[in-house]
Amino acid sequence: xxxxxxxxxxxxxxxxxxxxxxxxxxxxxxxxxxxxxxxxxxxxxxxxxxxxxxxxxxxxxxxxxxxxxxxxxxxxxxxxxxxxxxxxxxxxxxxxxxxxxxxxxxxxxxxxxxxxxxxxxxxxxxxxxxxxxxxxxxxxxxxxxxxxxxxxxxxxxxxxxxxxxxxxxxxxxxxxxxxxxxxxxxxxxxxxxxxxxxxxxxxxxxxxxxxxxxxxxxxxxxxxxxxxxxxxxxxxxxxxxxxxxxxxxxxxxxxxxxxxxxxxxxxxxxxxxxxxxxxxx
Length: 281
Ligand code: ADP
Ligand code: MG
Prior knowledge:
Bound molecules: adenosine-5'-diphosphate, magnesium ion
Helix content: 10-25%
Largest sheet: 6 strands, mixed
Radius of gyration: 18 Å
Distance between the termini: 25 Å
Number of helices: 7
Number of strands: 10
Order of helices and strands: EEEHEEHEHHHEHEHEE
């Protein structure tokens, strides 16, 4: 196994307060929320943002036990751009779903942004999903009957940020879609749809972006643009975990390679990270 790569470089308590929930779950929300898109994140501790210890996930299919993840130990620092690599069925989606509290491990412990997910109540997990993590999917997962603006606004409503007027449009402009606010998903290209999905994730200001094969449906040039957009978020204080192919991995600070549910390599890509725009696949 290669040595663990980039360490945490930018630190902060990034989880926003939800105006609807003041007084509850304050452990998940220490930083002021407004202006999170434009203000630099404050310096903080070097604690890992994401930590997995001895994590396994098994499924029982009839009498057959399927091991999706086996005894995974990982620490991911703030502002890392991490690629999780591995063939289909190696456990990439399972890993992202566990970190995002969409799934629970069969064994082991997961701590994200100071929250031990296994000991959290359902209410705490719901707050965690709203305020700590944002998902970006291969198939975009936009609501077909909502415009680009409404899709992003919906994400803000779910995150309890509906009072922040103008934020959805501002975030769409930031991903290059200022001229597409009133377009429905079917009126947008695949790359534009993925930008809407990224805007929906970014607008929440959540510190962890989990992107499961986000370029899988896109052509090469569009995939590169989407990757650059995700990579740029690291400079703004986000921690980005992306699954996909080996070529993308060369642009990462750190590559975690899975095989049959186990981590078989973890470190900087050979030769160090390269600029996204120099990739080919
Ligand atoms: P990847 O994203 O790398 O393709 P997954 O995390 O989706 O891999 O799956 C890892 C393994 O777990 C695979 O063998 C898959 O079939 C199995 N698996 C995933 N989800 C389930 C489920 N809900 N029930 C049973 N087996 C599952
Ligand atoms: Mg998958």
